[in-house]
Write the structure tokens for this entry.
Amino acid sequence: MLVTCLQDIAIQVGANRILRTVQGAFHHPFGVIGMDPDRERSWRRGAVAAALKTLQTPVEGPTVFDF
């Protein structure tokens, strides 16, 4: 599984589960610059929860999930 905002590259390298973050905006996948710390902490927890759900989902070949 790969958490990224660059889904095309993830597909090219053969990742089966791709968690795309923040509508594909280029940033650190587990952080959003400019958010206050409490809101960002909540956002990060949601990203981790989405990643765990992605790992539990059966896939065949590259599959993109959104967070």
Q: What stands out?
A: The longest helix spans residues 37-56.
